[in-house]
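We close this part of the discussion by returning to an individual protein. The sequence in question and its structure tokens are set out directly beneath this paragraph:
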Amino acid sequence: MTTIADVPADAIEAARRGDPGARDRLVGHAWPHAFRIARSILRDADLAQDAAQEACAVVFHSIAHLRSAGAFRVWFYRIVLREALRLDRKRALCTLFAREPQARGDLGETIVKLDVRSALGKLSRAQRAAVVLHYYAGLNSREIAAVLGVPDSTVRFHLARAKRALEGLLCEHRLPADLMEAVAGAY
């Protein structure tokens, strides 16, 4: 699987200079990554598609303002995360005002299915963002800090707390020893 880091610097530079074909190719390459990050944050494919579309539109229209091709990766993930969190806040407000009763699952099920996405959904937004950016996007804590606009130590704190919480949530279901590979593999 390719990553956003696989985009050649010369392709980013061409897009920065205003080459419409380069911009189209860059957005085409960025779309699946934007969607996967947004889906991991939002846990909803329709909202993730909206967030990814918005993020790609921002990339398309703002690439000329990017300082350097080397900054693209962090810049891109910051835009995707901002759009996903914006829609997540909007969804939370809509849910608050709608006050619809939540559907209950079948409590009589005899087999419990492990759902890593569900476990990730129980993390705070900051923890979920840190986990997704680290294990899916492959960013280190310094890069995540740049995306989130927080200190590196805060990112390390969120990652440690998230790992502890996921271990607690998932170990009940006897996960394989390497928890983080299971989490990363779910996306």
Remarks:
- Residues 96-114, 173-179 have pLDDT under 50 and may be disordered.
